[in-house]
Structure formats: C-alpha cells, structure tokens
Design brief:
Number of helices: 10
Helix content: 40-55%
Strand content: 15-25%
Radius of gyration: 18 Å
Order of helices and strands: EHEHEHEHEHEHEHEHHEH
CATH class: Alpha Beta
Shape: globular
Largest sheet: 8 strands, parallel, barrel
CATH architecture: Alpha-Beta Barrel
Number of domains: 1
C-alpha cells in the first residue's frame, strides 16, 4: 500500500465514481489519473448524487500505485457507519481520509433523502484519529493493528477562517486541500492568516485548481465557493484558460506553506492535467534549489 508522503511536494487529483457498478470503467479512469498524480481523491456522493461507493472505488485506485485519499461525508452516516467505512477503506488500501460535510441533499438529485450529520467535520477528524490510535467510537479497542491513515481537512479560502481551520488541525488533520484557488492574490491574503497562527508548519496546504473553458464557467466556479481572478476569467473566455492556470500554479507554488497542488479535471482531457502536473513539479523543484 502506498502511503501519503507529506514530506514531499504532492500532485493530487480526484476520481468521481460512476453512476453505476462498472468496475472496468472505474479502474480505467483510476489508471488514467495515476499516470500524473501522486494521490487520487475519491469523491463521496458529490453533489448529493448516488454514485459507486468511494470505499469500493478505493480498491481500484490502490491497484494503480497512487495513494487513495477517501472522502467521507458526515451527511449520510452516523458515527458507527463512519467508523466502519474508515476501517473498510483502510483494509482496501486507503492512504488517507478527507472528512467533509457533504453537499446538502436539497440541492441534489434526491431532495427528499434524509441527512444524518450526527458529527460535524472536526468530530469526524477526531473519530478517524481515534481509530488510528486503536480506539473505536465506543471506547473499545480495535482488533489487531490500527489503520495507518493520514487525515486531511478541506477549506475554502473565501469562507474558512484560520481559527476554524486550527480546530481541524488540532483534531488531527495533517494536510489541507482547498476550494479552487485561481485568484493568487486572494489566496496569498488567506495564507497570511494561516502563517500568523503557524498552521503552515503543522499541516501541508494543497490549493485546488481547475481549467475553466469560459467566463461562464468561471462564474459557476465562483458559485461553488471558488476564487477566480478577473484576468483568469478573461483568458478563459479567449480560449487561453490552460496557460492561465499554468501561470497561477507557478505563483501558488511560490507561496510559503504550499506543499502541493490539487488538480480537479472537470471533464478536461487527461493530457491537460498531466501538463499542469508537470508544471507543478517543475516549479516545486525550482523552489527546492538553493
């Protein structure tokens, strides 16, 4: 099983499981992503839609040699189910768990479904940390060796305060993946607050990027909580979005505390993601030079 090595610069990406049980398609997509990524997030009912279980898809990602980062939302499960899913993911080769709140069902395809939300996100982080220390939610000891999982946290620079993020890091998060950050100045302002609390020394910060194809696409990203600079939107409208995002990555990697880049495909060609991954690694290599 591949571990998530937070001592090195990471390129991560994400796999959205299919709306069905096609194992071959899920496996093929994982192989495509693993060609350029160190680790692959597996989304968990994104958009409050029914898709293949993220835990089941863990096995396909693990086969590729990339480190599986399993997203788990508190929306759909109580603490018993979340603990069981975490142990199952670890058994199938998960390297990390990324606790999330989950998109509201009212905005998804199943608006009448019930939400659980017994735990909040920091609570799930603490639950996973407890399992890694050999303790079940009941206080009973695990059978056998505890799972070796890295725990992450999600953050939106537009909304998540440094104090709120500190709670998640205090609970056990060792890396932070952010909402889409295509506004370098806004992201740097947010990181100033992160550095003032010393959080960049306690966790690896991994901003997310995506390639918008138009100004309208940029507005949709903003609607989801992403930050997109006006000049990036203008270049996307002119068909120059890929190059613009490459330049954004160069600037993000230079910010103190940034230890990786998360590439969100959004149905863009894998070749574009591979190019952005190469840009990311080249920039990181330059930053390491004396």
């Amino acid at each position: 099983m591949r571990r998530l090595d937070l001592d090195r610069f990471l390129v991560t990406t994400e796999l959205v499981p299919p709306r069905g049980a096609d194992a071959a398609a899920c496996r093929a997509h994982a192989v495509e992503l693993a060609a350029f990524a160190d680790a692959i997030n597996i989304t968990d009912g994104a958009g409050a839609a029914v898709r293949m279980s993220a835990v089941a898809a863990t096995a396909f990602v693990a086969e590729t040699g990339a480190a599986p980062i399993v997203q788990l939302t508190v929306r759909d499960r109580n603490s018993i189910a979340l603990a069981a899913e975490t142990l199952g993911a670890a058994a199938l080769g998960a390297a990390a768990i990324l606790p999330l709140g989950g998109d509201p069902v009212a905005k998804g395809e199943n608006p009448d479904a019930a939400e659980v939300r017994e735990l909040d996100t920091p609570g799930l982080i603490r639950l996973v940390a407890g399992l890694c220390n050999g303790v079940l939610p009941s206080g009973r000891s695990l059978d056998g060796e505890p799972p070796h999982l890295v725990i992450g946290a999600a953050a939106s620079p537009a909304f998540t305060t440094a104090a709120a993020l500190a709670e998640r890091i205090d609970a056990g998060a060792a890396f932070v993946q952010t909402q889409i950050a295509l506004d370098v100045e806004a992201f740097e302002r947010w990181m100033v607050g992160i550095r003032e609390l010393g959080l960049h020394r306690r966790a690896s910060f991994i901003p997310s990027v995506a390639v918008p194809g138009s100004r309208a696409a940029c507005e949709r990203l903003r609607g989801f909580g992403g930050q997109v600079a006006d000049d990036v939107a203008e270049r996307a409208e002119a068909g120059d979005g890929l190059a613009a995002v490459g330049e954004v990555i160069e600037a993000l990697v230079a910010i103190e505390g940034v230890r990786g880049v998360h590439l969100i495909p959004l149905a863009r060609p894998a070749s574009e993601m591979a190019w952005l991954a190469a840009v990311s690694q080249r920039c990181a290599a330059r930053m390491r030079q004396p």
